[in-house]
Amino acid sequence: MGRRLARHLQSRAVTEEQTSPAEPEHPRRRIRSFVLRAGRTTAGQARALAELGPRYLLDYAPVPLDAMAAFGRAAPLILEIGFGMGEATAQIAQARPGDNFLCCEVHEPGVGALLKRIGEQGVGNIRIVRHDAVEVATHMLAPGQLDGVHIFFPDPWHKTRHHKRRLIQPPLVALLASRLAPGGYLHCATDWQPYAEQMLQVLSAEPLLLNTGTPWAERPGYRPLTKFENRGLRLGHGVRDLVFTRRAPAP
Questions:
Q1: DSSP 8-class letter at 32
Q2: Does any domain span residue 15?
Q3: Per the annotation, does 147 bind a ligand?
Q4: Among 25, 133, 178, 185, which lies 20 to 30 A Cα-Cα from 41?
Q5: Where in this protein does the record put region Disordered (predicted)?
Q6: Which residues are known to be catalytic?
Q7: CA 139, CA 62: separation in Å to the nearest integer?
Q8: Residue 204: inside a domain, yes or no?
Q9: Number of helices and strands in the chain (H, E)
Q10: Range of the domain at 157
């Protein structure tokens, strides 16, 4: 999926910004997993949306997901939050045909691009929900239903005043950890070292999760290097992978 540049990726965390004392009080805005930005849908992406959308797009509904019905089989369920243009998502799904991938993205060009890849590459184990991943995890996924979660190269929100908008925050991590089955994993990756350090701090503080790295994990073989990541590596931007697993319940 490469680096999530602003012109490509729209799945971003927006946590509530505190109202200053000088401002009038108003209800807190809800936490969302994305910010919508402009983007143009190509003819090929639009065609994929029209032709493949009915098969691979799932409607959001605040009711538990029937994964068997959605995928047509029982298999480990992996949630991906924000897949951008879907390059890495399609590669991972092809490399792991025995798993089901539930992918959340609201950016129409990205959804169309992944559907186009699905059609061209014959990938059958992906389903897409065009909706806020926070609401999907809260209302459509049951505790212990997931076997894994992928969050690759979320927007680092470089400026200090924007750090509160970063996706990896304690409330979301606690929610995702509750949706993992014991032994399930949460895999995050970033090429921005300060964000990697914050991710490590937040993930390590979640009592349901256990770090498999020391503290960083080796890049798992299923996560491919994309063109944006290769470009970053050439520029000296190191990539950090963090893989945490859900602890087994206490006896």
A1: B
A2: no
A3: no
A4: 133
A5: 1-27
A6: 155
A7: 5
A8: yes
A9: 8, 8
A10: 143-251
Q: Phi/psi class of residue 183: alpha, beta or left (left: φ > 0; alpha: ψ in -120 to 50)?
A: left
Read off the CATH number of the domain in which 205 is found: 3.40.50.150
pLDDT digits (tens, 9 = 90+) for 62-96: 999 999 999 999 999 999 999 999 999 999 999 99
Q: Which residues contact 62 (CB under 8 A, 6 or more apart)?
A: 135, 139, 140
Between vectors from CA 131 to CA 129 and to CA 135, what angle results, nearest 5°? 110
The model carries a pTM of 0.84
> Is 80 exceeded by the pLDDT of residue 19?
no
Q: How far apart are CA 169 and CA 198, in angstroms?
A: 9
Is 105 annotated to bind ligand? Answer: yes
What pLDDT is stored for residue 3 in this prediction? 43
Q: Is 161 a domain residue?
A: yes
- Per residue in 32-65, is it b (16+ CB within 10 Å) or e — as a string? bbbbeeebebeeebeebbeebeeebebebeeeeb
Q: Return the C-alpha torsion angle 89, 90, 94, 100, nearest 10.
A: 60
16 among the known binding-site residues? no
At 97, the amino acid letter reads P
8-state DSSP, 102: E
Instruction: Report pLDDT digits (tens) over 97-156.
Output: 999 999 999 999 999 999 999 999 999 999 999 999 999 999 999 999 999 999 999 998
Q: Does any domain span residue 119? A: no
Segments of the chain assigned E as strands: 57-58, 77-81, 100-104, 126-129, 146-152, 180-190, 209-211, 240-246
Annotated ligand binding at 80? The verdict is: yes
3-state secondary structure of 58: strand
CA distance 146 to 180: 5
